[in-house]
Amino acid sequence: MTEPSPPAGGGRLARELAAGLQELGEPAGDEIVAKLARLLTELERWNRRINLTAVRDLHDMVALHVQDSLAVRPLLIGPRVLDVGTGAGFPGLPLAIVAPGLAFTLLDSNGKKISFVRHMIGDLGLGNATAVRARVEDYAPATAFDTVIARAFAPLPRMLELAGHLVAGDGVLLALKGKYPAAELAGLRAAEPAWTTDVTELTVPGLPDHERHVVRLTRRGAVHR
Asked: Of all residues in the chain, what percent are helix, strand and coil, respectively (each to 5)?
């Protein structure tokens, strides 16, 4: 397939994406910027007909979807990554674009949203990404994942209950949160003593007034990678 080109009139969008990538320390080559721009313009187009995201403005999507997704990339371990409750493909699609050496599975039970994710995987030629329509509690792949990641999916105890079986023995579960989830952490530590937690505060370009934290969960006694 031919590589996607930035949309007509998309100079501002490309500049915003490139600046965010550079601030995050990610590669900001023309191909990556073009694919991210294509992802957002297609999301905006589909969103006019199907409610895929509450974020309607194309330029708001740069920070709220792309940069918010990519800020967590340093915490991924691989090679197999599962995005639980991916919705319209976040954080999985932006991560698959910038990290071609990792294999991403994007999981959601919503058929319309998974249809969009499949469309984008094909449109962008993402050979390292697969979309699966299933409920997380029913999903039973042959091999567990090195990283399981979720953004705004469920409170921590519930997330671990639903997705803990999908994390490899020495893998990691990453829960993307806004404000520091003190109450969720307290409940999790009481209910799940077999797991250890640590929290990283993220800085997301374009979102200076938004708190962002990642809760990293690993099995107690596992060798951390």
From this structure: 40, 20, 35
CB atoms within 10 A of CB 58: 19
Phi, psi of 105 (to 5 degrees): -115, 125
Separation of alpha carbons 48 and 116, rounded Å: 13
Inter-residue contact 50 to 116 (CB < 8 Å): yes
* Crossing angle for the helix pair 11-24 and 30-47, to the nearest 10 degrees: 120
Helix (H) or strand (E) segment spanning residue 188: helix 182-191
Are 3 and 31 in contact, with CB atoms under 8 Å apart?
A: yes
CA distance 176 to 202: 10
On whether the CB atoms of residues 144 and 168 are closer than 8 A, the answer is yes
Sequential pLDDT tens for the chain (225 residues) = 444 544 444 599 999 999 999 999 998 899 999 999 999 999 999 999 998 988 888 889 999 999 999 999 999 999 999 999 999 999 999 999 999 999 999 999 999 999 999 999 999 999 999 999 999 999 999 999 999 999 878 889 899 999 999 999 999 999 999 999 999 998 887 778 889 999 999 989 888 778 999 999 999 876 655
Question: Percent of the chain scored above 70 by pLDDT?
Answer: 94
pLDDT at position 36, please?
A: 97
184 vs 154, 156, 158, 159, 163, CA distance in Å?
A: 10, 6, 10, 11, 16
Tell me the whole-structure pTM to 2 decimals.
0.92
CA distance 206 to 66: 11
